[in-house]
Structure formats: C-alpha cells, structure tokens
Amino acid sequence: MTTANEITDGAYRLCGIRTPDTDQDTDALLALNEMIALWSADGLTVPYLTRETFTLVQGTPSYTIGSGGTFDTVRPMVIEAAMIRDSDSIDSPVDPRLTQEEYNLVPDKSVQGRPDRLFYDTQYSLGVIYMDPVPEAAHSILLFSRKALTAFASISATMDLPGEYAKALRYNLALDLAPEIPVTLEPLIIRTAGAAVNLIRDLNSGPVRWVKLDPALTYAVLR
Prior knowledge:
By secondary structure, the chain is α/β, with parallel strands linked by helices. The protein has helices at about 5-15, 20-40, 100-105, 165-175, 185-205; strands spanning about 1-5, 50-55, 60-65, 70, 75-85, 90-100, 110-115, 115-120, 125-130, 135, 140-145, 160, 210.
C-alpha cells in the first residue's frame, strides 16, 4: 500500500525540497489526482479489468451504469468483454463492440431473445448499456471493464496498485511540480519518468489482469 504523502514527498525530493509545507502538500495532492485522472483516460495505464455480475430485467432494453445507476458501481471507461449466464449457469458470449451507428440500424428494438451484443454509451455521470436483442428472461450479465484509477481522498490516503506504479507516479509528479516551484530537473529524472510510464504501457498492452468485484463494495483494486 502506498500513501499519497509518500508519492508527493518523493516527488518534492526529486525537485530538491526535503520538507514540503502544508500548502505544498495541498498543491501536490491536487496535481497527483489530476495526473491519475489523465492516466485513467489513457486506458493503457489501468492495470486490470474489473469483473462484475448484474441482473437483467425481462423486456428491459437499457440499463444505466455508474454510482446510483441501475447497475450501481463505478462507471466503466470501456467494456472489454461480456457474457450472459442463464438459470442453468450456461454462459454465452456477448459482443460489447456494437457502435451507436450499428445500434441505430437495428430495425426493431423491441424484439426479445437472449442478448448476444451490447452498445455501451459512455455518458457522464451514468453510462447506458443497450442490449440487443432485448432480454427475454432475467439472465445474469457478466461485465469485464476498465475503470478509472481512484483518486486519493487525502494526503494520508492509500492506494493498492502494482509496485511498478509508485516510481512512475513519483517521477512524473515531479515533472508536474517542477514548473511551479520553479526548478529545473536533472535529465535523468525526466528520462526515468518517461521510461516508467512506457514500462507500464508495455505491461498493460499484454494480457490484462482482472479482479472480481464484491457486490457489497463500490470498487475493487488489484492486490
């Protein structure tokens, strides 16, 4: 587990500041969370797929997903895979790559059957999942999705991520903080920051790890 303070203090040390004050801690936490949001939008730097199970409603074609939605969870950035599980625990694949244009071309959106594809409309703050065909029974749907990295709620908050992330966060945060101090960073620090992010990109471009989300929890992270 890594605290935000460990990352921000490490970034300041790279900038030549040994003991940051309270205002600097506040600025660094804001910069850190902004950087995490950008990494999440990138997609490749999210280190896992989250597996979740929800229940479809017979005759209902669309479902909101996100905090407070029909599927009450953290809103996915993208759904990578999906399956339908029937009452006999038989799984069948669902293609999540249906586009808006393709869904618009479905002539009769009221036809019921076992869904074999879905369109995910990534609206904010609630995404919308459209099933095709419309569920003919209350099947379970398993979703495998990428979600945003969680922001640090405070300077003492912790995040559970693979070890390679700590150095990448620390060095890249130093790049963000340096112009505000201001300070000129050593070329080695700049190269290390870029190499650390590239390593994470390479690791995440291979087979993606996934975690199963406990329905009682809002979010899960890889341990």
